[in-house]
Amino acid sequence: MNNISLLTFPQIKDPRGNLSFIEYPQHIPFEIKRIYYIYDISEGAERGAHGHKKLEQVIIPLSGSFDLTLDDGHTRKTFSLKKPWQGLYIPPMMWRDLNNFSSGSVCLVLASDVYKEEDYYRDYKDFLNDVNG
Ligand code: T46
Predict the structure, then answer these.
(1) pLDDT, tens digit, for every residue of 54-98?
(2) Is residue 74 annotated as a catalytic residue, yes or no?
(3) How far is the CA of 41 from the centre of ligand 1 (A)?
(4) What is the DSSP letter of 21?
(5) Whose CA is nearest to atom 31 of ligand 1?
(6) β-strand 106-111 against 57-63: which pairing, if any?
(7) What number does the ligand 1 atom closest to the CA of 55 have?
(8) Predicted local distance difference test score (pLDDT) of residue 111
(9) Which of 34, 23, 88 is nearest to 60 (CA)?
(10) Cβ distance 58 to 67 under 8 Å?
(11) Assessment of whether the complete model's pTM goes beyond 0.70
(12) What separation in Å is there between the alpha carbon of 133 and the centre of ligand 1?
């Protein structure tokens, strides 16, 4: 759990609207190879329920709020994300669950690699086996 970190990005405050930006390597610990975002999220939806073997990600609540629970196989911790100028850095080997999305929320994800299904743990038992293996 020690290697999870809440990153705070620069904020340019402006009466016209605020602006934040993210540059590698000053603000994020990996080169971004993929960006994806989750939107039009149904009420009560739950996402995630998987882990990654090597992938590193930063999850940003671009709009609205949601809860992100991380589990390293020993400890679980829930983070309530609601500040668009902050992102949660998730290292490899971390199970994640996302829920409690507010209406109209948008979840932006910066990832260290392209999509690879073989990097996923879709079964919690397989994840635990490798954590303890
Ligand atoms: C994560 C959470 C926060 C792709 O084709 N490309 C992609 O880059 C992604 C992320 C997904 N997909 C396909 C794979 C599935 O057929 O989109 C479908 C839905 O993916 P999934 O059920 O994995 O979506 P979430 O929201 O449960 O999880 C995603 C990421 O997969 C995961 O890495 O950490 O968002």
Answers:
(1) 999 999 999 999 999 999 999 999 999 999 999 999 999 999 999
(2) no
(3) 13
(4) -
(5) 48
(6) antiparallel
(7) 33
(8) 98
(9) 88
(10) no
(11) yes
(12) 26
